[in-house]
């Protein structure tokens, strides 16, 4: 799975560096951060709805969310290695989410 997500990131980066006419990815970059964030939010909501419905819908919507997240990372200049490093730093530690819940 990591290779597929990393390949998706590389494809999003390639589209940013070498735009292709008619590309949906380039449409998102052209519209800017607000449009990309809107799509990430929409897709996250669709993942939740999909999880309440069928596994096929959940899979489809999760793939859409991953795609839009990769576009967001590229737009913000966050590398895939940055994400891998962060996840690696969490191994063997309590999750950040759990720690944050304890702070409340």
From TrEMBL:
GO molecular-function term, one example from the UniProt record: phosphoribosyl-ATP diphosphatase activity
Record bears the keyword Phosphoprotein: no
Gene Ontology biological process terms, A to Z: L-histidine biosynthetic process
A Pfam family this chain is assigned to: PRA-PH
EC number, as in UniProt: 3.6.1.31
InterPro entries: HisE (IPR008179), PRib-ATP_PPHydrolase-like (IPR021130)
Similarity field: Belongs to the PRA-PH family.
Entries under PANTHER family matching the protein: HISTIDINE BIOSYNTHESIS BIFUNCTIONAL PROTEIN (PTHR42945), HISTIDINE BIOSYNTHESIS BIFUNCTIONAL PROTEIN HISIE (PTHR42945:SF9)
Protein name: Phosphoribosyl-ATP pyrophosphatase
Biological source species: Leuconostoc carnosum (strain JB16)
